[in-house]
Sequence to fold (250 residues):
Amino acid sequence: MNTFRLLAIFTLLILISVSHTRAQTITLEAETGGLWFSRNDVRIPNEGGTRFDMIDLIGSDPAPYYRLRLSVQFLERHNLRILYAPITKSGTGIIEDENAILFADSEFASGSPLKGTYRFNTWRLTYRYTFYDRGPWELGAGLAGLIRDAKVQLEQDGLTDRDTDLGFVPLVHLYASRALSDKLSVQLDAETLAGPQGRATDAALTLHYRLLENATLFTGYRILEGGADVDQVYNFSWINFLPFGATWSF
Fold:
């Protein structure tokens, strides 16, 4: 909880500072749609656990999701935004294995119905500087801080075990926008970083339509890919999104 408090205090201080600057624009963004998993490999613990495909339990069928974002543009080229993006998917399936499924501190029977729950909620603070804004193009880059609240849980015949993870991940932010007409534009928005212990990427390619002077609609394709390979956890996933959203600026 200390991490959440620090992020909240840091965000509040920045927003207070921004509120005293000139030429600020506040944008509210709501995104929803469907998501589906292409990959979700799990082994917990990494040493001694059983590797299995979480999709065998939670399925690859589409599930609804939503994301909420507040952005503040100030001093013309500076942008600060806060994102809340929760994901939870549960399901029951069967994992076929010669031996019992060793997960966390428990053993689960293979070949029998097993309920799985996968949660990956994130809070993110991103700063971007627009270094190019000429003609139809706008290009920017910056840094992001992500707080993840992740959980993998298995349940079978009254036995429940889980692995949870609350942590901070720094990311690099990249942004590109090209106007196609007075009302249409295409945008690439990505935050990513990779290292020896894992990687994370949240990237979207979206088409935006300006409905009103201060309101837009958008759709496109988003991916959330990455994971960790450390002593305690091996988990890599690929999540696809079909987003539909709207923004309102004031």
